[in-house]
Amino acid sequence: MKIFKLILLLVLTILVSCGIEDEVEKLGKTDCAVEFTNFLDQSEDDYQDLMIQPDSEGNQQSLEACSNRKLFTEGYLTRLRNTQNQTKEGCTGDEISGFYVRIGDRIQDLEEDMESTWNRCEEIFGGG
Questions:
Q1: What is d(CA 68, CA 109) in angstroms, rounded to the nearest whole number?
Q2: Does any domain span residue 88?
Q3: Which of 7, 55, 73, 78 has the highest CB neighbour count under 10 A?
Q4: How many domains does the chain have?
Q5: Which residues have a Cβ under 8 Å from the Cβ of 100 and sit 6 or more positions away?
Q6: How far apart (Å, rounded) are the C-alpha atoms in residues 71 and 61?
Q7: Residues 6+ apart with CB under 8 A from 91
Q8: Does residue 36 lie within any of the structural domains?
Q9: Euclidean distance between the first and final Cα of the chain, in Å?
Q10: Cβ(72)–Cβ(49) under 8 Å?
Q11: Is residue 64 scored above 60 in pLDDT?
């Protein structure tokens, strides 16, 4: 019996290391939910990639870099708000509710970032 458990554990470990965890995560979700989750994840990845871009002179900490990040954040906020209003045909009510919570929480975080940081670029880095 111990050998069977060890073999089962080994097989599960191999499957998880081969990316099966992504497939397991999708089990029980509608195609709509999987696609919309992938869209939200990719949108977040794209935003994060933009947020690490330096200014035109290669500086990470400057008025220009801060102003750019403010614009990226404003654009991402608009995208999230528009996404929140999109029809999600084929998703269950619970899935849609989960998306509203996820998007709403992210919008709140970004609005707090705007208030605490991105709307203060001139104050932090000096006038342009």
A1: 18
A2: yes
A3: 73
A4: 1
A5: 84
A6: 15
A7: 30, 32, 33, 36, 99
A8: yes
A9: 72
A10: no
A11: yes
Is 54 a domain residue? yes
- What local confidence, expressed as pLDDT, does residue 86 receive? 83
Asked if residue 23 is part of any domain, the answer here is no
| Containing structural domain, residue 55 | 30-125
CA distances from 91 to 33, 64, 96 (A): 6, 41, 6
Dig out the tokens for 50 from the structure: 């933009």
The residue that leads in pLDDT, 14 or 108, is 108
The span from the CA of 120 to the CA of 77, in Å, is 17
> What per-residue confidence (pLDDT) applies to 13?
60
Q: How would DSSP label each residue in 3-54?
A: HHHHHHHHHHHHHIIIIIHHHHHHTT--HHHHHHHHHHHHHHHHHHHHHT--
The verdict on pTM exceeding 0.85 is no
* CA-closest candidate to residue 79, choices 47, 51, 101: 47
Give the list of residues 6+ apart from residue 53 with CB closer than 8 angstroms, or none. Answer: 65, 68
